[in-house]
Amino acid sequence: MQCRRKNIPATSGMHDQQATASLPDDAHENCGDRARNQHELKIDLRFPDQASPLLLHPIFPASLPTVDMPPPSTVTNITPPEAITPIATRGFASGALRFGSISILAHIALSSLHPVYRGLTIQFKVFIQLSAMTLGGCIFAEKRVSEYNDMVRRRNRALERSQRAWSEERELRERIDRENVAGAKAAMLSREGK
Questions:
Q1: How far apart are CA 85 and CA 94, in angstroms?
Q2: Distance between CA 170 and CA 17 in Å, rounded?
Q3: Angle, to 10 degrees, between the axis of helix 84-113 and the axis of helix 122-193?
Q4: Which residues of 43-81 are buried (b: 16+ CB within 10 A; e: fewer)?
Q5: If 0-12 CB within 10 Å is exposed, 13-18 middle and 19+ buried, where does residue 136 land?
Q6: How many CB atoms lie within 10 A of CB 166?
Q7: Is the backbone of residue 11 left (phi > 0), alpha (psi -120 to 50) or beta?
Q8: Which letter, b or e, does each residue of 87-122 get, where b requires 16 or more Cβ atoms within 10 Å of its Cβ?
Q9: Cα–Cα distance for residue pair 131/134, rounded to 1 Å
């Protein structure tokens, strides 16, 4: 004996809607009415002001692990560095110009060769051109900003290396000076001792 799907129709009225689904027929072969009812997924759809229980079948237990959300950030003023905005703007303009010129060439070619493209409305053709220009602008703005960020990282690493080299050289000179002073004192004491 094979279990059949049991569908309960939604009740009338906007506030008391219920949706019921069940597993496919082949998921519970040779099971009785009780097992079939356990496999039902019953969702009670009500407005948020009313209690809306979600009854799941045994495969999806209600005690799934929950993930705690991190606390909200205390940083309120998130502004990019001043240099990034003009760089992104120039990148966007460059990409929009490049992709726009390519899309205009494609428009000219398609208008003369393709009857379906000729049948499109002017508004849709303008939408296609603007979409290509926006895509190109976004791609090149992102490229320019990432290049700028890489350049800043390289510059900071070079400054750190230079600072380490200068500090090592300063320590070396101080040690040599201390050794020279110590050697000079030792030479003076040896002269005085003779």
A1: 14
A2: 79
A3: 150
A4: eeeeeeeeeeeeeeeeeeeeeeeeeeeeeeeeeeeeeee
A5: buried
A6: 10
A7: beta
A8: bbeebbebbbebbbeebeeebeebeeeeeebeeeee
A9: 5
pTM above 0.70, yes or no: no
Distances (CA, A) of 161 to 64, 74, 167, 171: 51, 33, 10, 15
pLDDT, tens only, 51-106: 444 444 455 555 556 667 777 778 777 777 888 999 999 999 999 999 999 999 99
Query: Which class for 83: exposed (0-12), middle (13-18), buried (19 or more C-beta within 10 A)?
Result: exposed
